[in-house]
Design goal:
Helix 1 packs parallel to helix 4 (147-181) and helix 3 (104-141) runs antiparallel to helix 4. This protein has helices at residues 4-22, 72-81, 104-141, 147-181, and strands spanning 38-41, 44-47, 52-58, 61-66, 89-90, 95-98. Helix content is 56%, strand content 15%. Strands 3-4-6-5 form a four-stranded antiparallel sheet, covered by helices on one side.
Length: 182
Amino acid sequence: MDYTNIKEKMDKSINVYNEKLSEVRAGRANPAILNKVKIDYYGTPTPISQVAGVSVPEARLIVIQPWDVSVLKEIEKAILASDIGINPNNDGKVIRLAFPELTEERRKDLVKDIKKMAEEAKIVIRTIRRDGIEEAKKEQKDGNITEDELKQAENEIQKLTDKSVEEIDKILSNKEKEVMSV
């Protein structure tokens, strides 16, 4: 039985979890929090990074410098409408996003959110495992694999699952340390 499809699905769910974590505001300025913010640029929803230069000159500051100054107001509106929780500071040429220091309570809330995201990722991994095992059982029922091959397939799929869950736990642990030490 071929396990590459199962492994690819599990790897993809880990990558999605990583992307979600990069958008979590951990007190440091991270341009990734703007990934989901889009502006209306001549009738097309466009990511900010495609209409402006986004830089991080300091640990707690993001500077957005649009290539076309006429979109400055649109960028400001999009940031205010998004749920990143930071008020943009517009000086007519650039927009500055200043990240406030995180309180202990806010850090604990962020850790809870991160753990919830990790659990969701693990649920996805376990669903992939279940689907893989069901597929192996179907193959065995159809007579394509033997009982021993079915047991071997179940063991291999479980190993992939354990490895993926371990990877998610490691990512969670690193992000937790980052949030609590900022």
